[in-house]
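Sharing a chain and its predicted structure for anyone who wants a worked example. Both blocks are below, sequence first, tokens second.
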Amino acid sequence: MRRQLAGILATAVISAFAIAAPVQAATGADSAPASATRVDPLGDLITSALTGALPGSVDFKMRATMYHAGAKGIRAFDSLGCKVAAMRTVAVDPKVIPRRTVIFIKETVGLPMPDGGTHDGYWYASDIGGAIKGLKLDLFSGFGAASMKALRGVDLSSLSVSTVGEFKGCPPQ
């Protein structure tokens, strides 16, 4: 039933975008800066339909902590052997969320990214930690304690977390 509903929603969104796209192009409404993160609601809807999760559904309510490179005991590589990516790498309990899972954290949408863009809410579960047990995450903010500033305004005690897919290899930088 959920997949049928997702299919119907996908068809409706595709129709809406097919009608809106020529109007946007004709009016020149596409004025987003080149450095802005690309938003792909249609792709998100299709991903949600394929994974069985409806848009906006929350798999977990989790609490989080932050970590940064330069802190005692923090390495430049995650548990997969990949280079950690600022505002993308997240440490998880693999019993709750398997490594190599792409997750969506609603509360991080719109946060400033190190490259000047805005966060789209997608994080990559590529790290684990000894203190990360159960419904807890550890978000990698970047390099140096100042990198944690972007996440300080977020209520880390209750995050809306959805699993949206898997990735192969290393997470994107």
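Comments welcome. The helical segments are 2-27, 41-51.
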